[in-house]
Design a protein that fits this description.
7 helices
């Protein structure tokens, strides 16, 4: 599984990162390319906001591309990429297991199996300096929630539990993605749960699903359309070449 981190300018500056930008085929929208989650890739738009009255500590906001699910990690000092990846994976694991248990998609007795599956999967991080403007709108919404909540409660930074509680409040709200149409409203928690069950709970499904191996949860991603490559037709020896026929007539 590939985990794509689309890092904002602020995050790159805070972490002192010198990252490549996502290549653009047509040379347009360099630095603002669309990021996409699919069966092989989990894509996140990541940003940092400075804590009130503190130019050093920050709160990381990560929003997943398909579900618009937000993870908030508060009161951090600048991290290395390796430290960020370790922290992010730990937080992602806790949140997806909590989702599975809270929504009763799995029994508590099999949580260890999910943990083993999560740990066993090969995860490759891929970092870019990029801001997907569509996903970033949800990052900005989360930032507004954090700022307003801190002001209302007269705090400079959240604890982990408080940040998790706020993120769950945001993740239970209905969202909409413009390119999916005006009526395509969804709840981030439900979409991320679909993804997590597909990736990390193989063999744990009680029911069966069409076109899905028994015991597995279905993929929320459409299968790629197969392109039929037609073999070039071989012209039989007894077929007259039209060009040669015309030359003979002339």
């Amino acid at each position: 599984m590939k985990i794509q981190i689309s890092a904002s300018n602020a995050l790159c500056k805070w972490m002192k990162l010198d990252l490549d930008r996502i290549p653009s085929i047509d040379g347009k929208r360099i630095g603002t390319q669309t990021i996409t989650t699919d069966a092989e890739t989990l894509a996140w738009q990541c940003h940092v906001i400075k804590n009130h009255n503190n130019d050093y500590n920050g709160t990381v906001i990560a929003v997943e591309a398909r579900s618009r699910y937000v993870i908030i990690i508060p009161d951090l000092v600048p991290l290395t990429q390796a430290e960020f990846e370790e922290l992010f994976l730990g937080r992602l694991f806790i949140e997806v297991v909590n989702l599975m248990l809270d929504r009763r998609a799995i029994e508590e007795s099999v949580a260890d199996i999910v943990a083993s599956d999560f740990s066993a999967q090969d995860k490759q991080f891929c970092w870019f300096k990029n801001t997907d403007l569509s996903v970033n709108g949800h990052v900005s919404d989360a930032e507004s929630w954090i700022r307003q909540s801190c002001d209302n409660n007269d705090v400079t930074a959240y604890s982990d539990d408080e940040a998790y509680g706020l993120s769950m409040h945001i993740n239970e709200m209905h969202k909409r993605i413009a390119k999916e149409g005006r009526n395509s409203r969804f709840v981030p928690i439900e979409r991320l749960l679909e993804d997590a069950l597909f990736r990390f709970a193989k063999g744990l499904a009680n029911g069966s699903y069409p076109d899905t191996p028994n015991g597995h949860f279905p993929s929320p991603y459409p299968k790629p359309i197969a392109v039929n490559k037609q073999e070039p037709k071989v012209i039989p020896d007894n077929v007259v070449c039209l060009a040669n026929f015309r030359k003979k007539k002339l």
